[in-house]
């Protein structure tokens, strides 16, 4: 593992090991030169390959022919920011164990360990790679959609960015709420060369896998969102029997009217705006009449999934979903006034219905009176027959 340059008399050591530490002496005639070689070895757990939220450990070993100096170790992450690890050190100063904080996908890159000592004077930079396979998405995000709209849900992986050479697998699941049964929508695998392949697993849930999408992306498209498409979409990837996931909650909004249809003159209807799941505390629903006043607006209470407003005139109404004073989605409902003849038909039907009810009531009363009279007449005739039978006499002819 060594060679000497015949011109310069340099000695090269390859594949340096801790056991190579010591004193190297060069003798040339009557001249003798000695050099002390101090060797550091830095290792990282899991060979530098991690998933988010894992806690890596660094081990720094040193070896020399003299006593092992007390080292000052400073750690820099991939953004050249100082990292404050927890130090576990033995009494001989030969072995240092540094426990890092939980990693994020953004921590991927080349880190630097700076080693310093005053006696002997040491200023050594040791570079090492940290690769964190994961999502560029947050662990949890919320997405809003309106009924019948088109929604694309995307999860961006970072395996191309960090040149992850190992293969891994994953899957996308959906469930309507936290305690519901999960349904697998698709699974995917990525080869060691970075080739990505997806397989659709569900034929009941209406979704598409877009043909053209950015690299390192898992994507599903809902071409026409239904109210029951809401829920939690969870993308999970697995590497070396370890797992990481990212979740998107889809909240769907719809509007309706009760009763539906045009509004007859003088009548009222209720407009209903509804979302599929409770909103966070910083979000609410709001009905707003276009070109109306503040008196026309109606806001939902905290964590309410529905807001209603009573309408007595034609006009255009908008329902907004507002989060942190920002409109996320909106749906409108146009209240149309029924034609005049419909109003007359409604009034006529009401009057006719009232007359019909009154007539039926009178008929029932008259029928009841007649039935009562017939019953009383029958009772009188029965009593008369009974009286004649009890008082019947026989007169004999003299």
From TrEMBL:
The chain crosses the membrane at residues 341-371. PROSITE patterns: IG_LIKE. Keywords: Membrane, Transmembrane, Transmembrane helix. Residues 266-330 form the Ig-like domain. This is T-cell surface glycoprotein CD4. It comes from Aptenodytes forsteri (Emperor penguin).
């Amino acid at each position: 593992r060594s060679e000497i340059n015949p011109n310069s008399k340099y000695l090269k050591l390859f594949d340096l090991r801790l056991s190579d530490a010591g004193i190297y002496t060069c003798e040339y005639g009557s001249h003798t030169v000695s050099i002390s070689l101090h060797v550091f070895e830095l290792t990282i757990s899991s060979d530098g390959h991690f998933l988010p939220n894992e806690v890596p450990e660094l081990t720094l070993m040193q070896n020399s022919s003299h006593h092992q100096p007390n080292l000052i170790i400073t750690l820099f992450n991939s953004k050249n920011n100082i990292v404050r690890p927890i130090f576990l050190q033995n009494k001989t100063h030969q072995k240092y164990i540094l426990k890092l904080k939980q990693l994020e996908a953004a921590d991927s890159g080349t880190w630097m360990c700076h080693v310093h000592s005053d006696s002997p004077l040491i200023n050594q930079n040791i570079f090492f790679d940290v690769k964190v396979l994961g999502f560029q998405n947050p662990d949890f995000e919320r997405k809003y959609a309106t009924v019948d709209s088109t929604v694309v849900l995307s999860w961006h992986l970072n395996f191309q960015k960090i040149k992850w050479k190992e293969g891994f697998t994953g899957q996308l699941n959906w469930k309507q709420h936290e305690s519901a049964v999960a349904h697998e929508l698709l699974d995917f695998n990525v080869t060691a060369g970075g080739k990505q392949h997806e397989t659709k697993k569900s034929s009941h849930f209406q979704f598409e896998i877009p043909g053209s999408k950015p690299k390192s992306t898992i994507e599903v498209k809902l071409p026409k969102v239904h109210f029951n498409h809401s829920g939690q979409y969870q993308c999970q990837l697995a590497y070396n029997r370890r797992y990481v996931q990212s979740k998107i909650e889809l909240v769907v909004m719809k509007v309706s009217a009760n009763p539906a249809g045009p509004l007859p003159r003088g009548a009222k209807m209720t407009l209903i705006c509804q979302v599929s799941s409770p909103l966070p505390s910083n979000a609410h629903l709001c009905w707003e009449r276009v070109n109306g006043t503040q008196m026309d607006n109606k806001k939902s209470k905290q964590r309410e999934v529905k807001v209603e407003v009573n309408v007595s005139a034609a006009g255009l109404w908008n329902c907004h979903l507002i989060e942190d004073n920002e409109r996320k989605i909106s749906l409108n409902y146009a209240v149309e006034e029924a034609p005049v003849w419909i109003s007359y038909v409604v009034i006529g039907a009401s009057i006719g219905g009232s007359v019909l009810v009154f007539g039926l009531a009178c008929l029932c009363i008259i029928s009841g009176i007649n039935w009562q009279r017939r019953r009383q007449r029958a009772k009188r005739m029965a009593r008369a027959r009974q009286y004649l039978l009890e008082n019947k006499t026989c007169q004999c002819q003299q």
